[in-house]
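During the reporting period the student researcher (J.K.) took over the structure-prediction task from the postdoctoral fellow and processed the backlog of single-chain submissions. One of the processed entries is reproduced below for the supervisory committee.
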Amino acid sequence: MRNSSHFKKHVQRFSAESSGTVAILFALSAIPVMMAAGLAVDMMRSNNARNNLQAALDAGALSAAAAANLSVSEREAVARATFAANFKPITGVIVNPAVSVDGDAVSMSAEFDYPTAFMRVAGYNTMDIASSVTVNLPETKKAEIALVLDYSGSMAEWTKGKKKYIVMRDATIQMVEEMTANGASDRVKFGLAPFSHHVHVTLPGKYVVGADPTSDWTGCTQDRKYPHNLSDDTPNSGDDDTKWGHAQAPEHLNKGCAPYAANSLSIRPISDDHAGVISQLEDMKPYAWTHIALGFSFGWQLISPNVPFGDVAEYNDDETMKVIVLLTDGRQTEPAFGPGSSRNVANGESNLEKLCQNAKAKGVTVVTVAFDLQHQATEDRLRNCSSDQEKYFFIADDGAELSASFEEIRALLQQAIYISK
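J.K. obtained the following structure tokens:
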């Protein structure tokens, strides 16, 4: 009995001592775990600070470059003021960016020590944050932008208190205004390609089936015959298949042409008449069905150097960026011409895919927006149509997201036009 009691005491003593050892070992092992977690937090915060710095530098350099008729010192002042307005303050950090205006570019750079929180335990009190940007002056670059906008009937539906086409209109107008401000009005041109199941357009009669070849023709048209509806080639006046003006598909004969003009849904060629673009945007209203491929083809035709529109830069003009911004809220519903004289909706879907490939092959930058789009196949088609699926494809489920998307498109296009590195 005595031996049993003695043994029990030894066991209890060992248990107490081993528990203490485990606690010590656990505490020691927790240190690297906590360090790793702290490092992750500090890295995340420093990355946010770096993004903050880059965005402020971009804004400062863009403002200084875009401003018209300024001296070097005035551009530097604009750059610093814009940087200060956009840089989100960091406690204990003062950032004074370096600014230089050299020839055709504005350069900005900045560097600072970002104070760490958790890494101080390991002896790292700060992390070096640095970034730079160079922006070309507007005189060295131009842009021709075709706005291909869905004005089918569904765009009259409501999204969070506003009709969808009103949200689209406001976001587009804001983009036009911001991209043509500060002396850039003669460097950026816009055209409009509003579409539903037709487009309403004025064309030389020799490019329209059955029209007087000696005068202009104004009216509604669908796509050209396949495969001419996949290119921006100039129509052959002796071949009706290459022309526009083919008869409306019988499925939607109840939706005629007259409301297009009444709703201001007319093709507007590329120009620097920004007030005219904005005025038409303010007047346009939705109507009828959806022919996305037709809208895209006319958007491409607007920035193509080939007639019937022309009066734009050649494809090999390195100083001019050609852009199509395509927005739709629905799937293709209008039949389109395809192989073997076929005419169906599936052709329209396939034609859009080929049109996107062909336009991008000519150097056109394609930006696509899926707005409140409840059709996965069309969303995928828009994604693949864009020039960069991560950069130039946008999904907007409501008005606020669409406004944010157009603001990002505006910033991306300005960077592509002005920022050199």
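The committee noted the following: The chain has a mean pLDDT of 89.
J.K. will present the remaining backlog at the next meeting.
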